[in-house]
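Structure (tokenized):
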């Protein structure tokens, strides 16, 4: 039997409730211990104002992992990490203790009832593009082209490296 293929995936991390910095740091630690995955690298943390939301500023980062988990199983693992941080989903874009988004899963384009990859707003958010490009300056978003081409469209979104 062949070993499962190793896939590079990018995970968006954000938090704006509780100790957001500690929550982002803990999410990275949990990703490093995730069975079937290994943390390859992580961006610096960034502070951003909420978009289409309310509450305190967010702390955001992006992680690059290598994984043998299928995309849907990886998403379930990310939801389990969120749940361990008390993540609640009372309404769309509610403030959160921890948000983990599967941004990219190799070169795959996925559209299922529970998962869309590339993440549908990957090119619309500075808090995703800036840390993603810090990790992978030449990354191409499947079906959309070079991620750097979308930076001008998010230039009006305030983001500061911590």
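Design, position by position:
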């Amino acid at each position: 039997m062949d070993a499962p293929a190793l896939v590079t995936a990018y995970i968006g991390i954000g938090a704006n409730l509780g100790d957001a910095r500690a929550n982002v740091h803990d999410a990275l630690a949990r990703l490093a211990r995730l069975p079937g995955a290994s943390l390859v690298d992580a961006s610096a943390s960034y502070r951003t104002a909420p978009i289409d939301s309310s509450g305190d500023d967010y702390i955001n980062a992006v992680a690059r992992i290598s994984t043998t988990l299928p995309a849907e199983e990886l998403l379930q693992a990310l939801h389990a990490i969120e749940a361990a941080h008390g993540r609640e989903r009372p309404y769309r874009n509610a403030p959160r203790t921890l948000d983990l988004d599967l941004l990219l899963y190799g070169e795959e384009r996925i559209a299922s009832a529970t998962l869309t990859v590339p993440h549908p707003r990957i090119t619309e958010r500075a808090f995703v593009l800036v840390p993603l490009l810090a990790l992978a300056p030449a990354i191409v978003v499947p079906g959309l082209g070079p991620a750097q081409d979308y930076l001008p469209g998010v230039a009006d979104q305030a983001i500061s490296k911590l």
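Reviewer-requested clarification: DSSP finds three helices and ten strands in the chain. The helical segments are 20-32, 71-84, 126-135.
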